[in-house]
Amino acid sequence: MSLAEGKLEDGVLTASLIGHIDSGNAAQAEQELNRLRQDIPAEAVVLDLERLTYISSAGLRIILRLRKERPELRLVNASSEVYEILEMTGFTEMMPVGKAYRRLSVDGCEVIGRGANGEVYRLDPDTIIKVYLNPDSLPDIQRERELARRAFVLGIPTAIPYDVVKVGEGYGSVFELLNAKSLAKLILAQPERLDEYVQVYVDLLKKIHATEVRPGDMPDMKAVALGWADYLSSHLPLEQYEKLHRLIAAVPEDRHMLHGDYHVKNVMVQNGEVLLIDMDTLCMGHPVFEFASIFLAYQGFGEPDHTVVERFLGLDYDTCAAIWDKTLRLYFGTDDPARLAGIADKARVVGYTRLLRRTIRRKGSSPEGQIIIENCKTRLAELLGRVDNLTF
């Protein structure tokens, strides 16, 4: 049986150690490993331990000798058992050693949410998993885990992922959410309780916005929005671009937390308690930036085609419009049509700015994209004609 296999990619030889390596076959394993290195010259070497079930001190000496020749050597996909051996013998202090990730399948699982970065599935009554679209998403996962941890420490009720797993060729974060249901599902099942559920939704939103963040702990949404505006400098008439940039630049600096993708699929209810999920968009800034994303979720994304919002949230467009309207009324404590319209206009300016940039980058040449782009440009032209500031 072969004890080592290899492949070359981007100048890196990944050599797999296989099976049970001890004093009886360590010499053979080393010969195979050295032959691989001769046959496949490489700039760097990685040892993949995914199929290694055991390694004795004789096998460990093979790794030590290799590291003397290749100081950049790193080990990946070590099982819990093999990792424990490496840790006890000090190898985890001498070189980078990565643990193997448990493999899970989401085939047949219910999709309970979709976003720009991934999809959320229910694995069983107790567990959900967020599967990231980017196959090289480990840095994104680590970032989201850290943002969720910071929010939790600051008192925001959020689900903290307890495991990172492999799903197909990508990765996912696993959360324990015992019998939790999203507000979207609850509204769909009990539309007569819409006012009650929107009140829960707004109460949590206010709690998020009342939470102050230390400088540097979360992205500054104003800086991000200025980037959106700058991207549009060659896509809007000069006068419109200059006013848009000026309006965003004049928004006061604000270090209060924003969720960044706050809609009824990202708020879960578990045993009467609310939990916030999908924390990779956490940021800080003025609430106008939050309300811009809320507007897009309930109305903006679906203006040219209402089914876009209906597919995304699982609720009909009229219900989504009602949630948007009730959210504004409850959050700002007013039924004054003029004031509500003014607040909505300010959020829409930022929302259309984001959507226009996003569509140009992703779908600019498609017929569907052209419809969205023209709608955004028309709406922005109207709004910039009457909006003089973005604060409320």
Structure, explained:
The chain has 14 helices and 18 strands. With 392 residues, it is of the alpha/beta class. The chain has three domains: 4-100, STAS domain (Transcription Regulator spoIIAA), CATH 3.30.750; 110-176, Phosphorylase Kinase, domain 1 (2-Layer Sandwich); 181-384, Aminoglycoside phosphotransferase (APH), C-terminal lobe (Aminoglycoside 3'-phosphotransferase, Chain: A, domain 2). A hairpin with a 2-residue loop joins β16 and β17. The longest helix is centred in the C-terminal third of the chain and has 27 residues, at 337-363. The N and C termini lie far apart (71 Å).
Key structural traits:
single chain, 392 residues, alpha/beta, Transcription Regulator spoIIAA, Phosphorylase Kinase, domain 1, Aminoglycoside 3'-phosphotransferase, Chain: A, domain 2, 3 domains, 6-stranded mixed sheet, 14 helices, 18 strands, elongated
Summarize this entry quickly.
With 392 residues, the protein is an alpha/beta fold. It has 14 helices and 18 strands.
CATH topology of the largest domain: Aminoglycoside 3'-phosphotransferase, Chain: A, domain 2
Number of domains: 3
First CA to last CA: what distance? 71 Å
Task: Provide the CATH architecture of the largest domain.
Answer: Alpha-Beta Complex
- Largest beta-sheet characterization: 6 strands, mixed
Per DSSP, the total helix count is 14
Secondary structure: number of strands: 18
Shape descriptor reads: elongated
The spatial strand order of the largest sheet comes to: 8-12-13-11-10-9
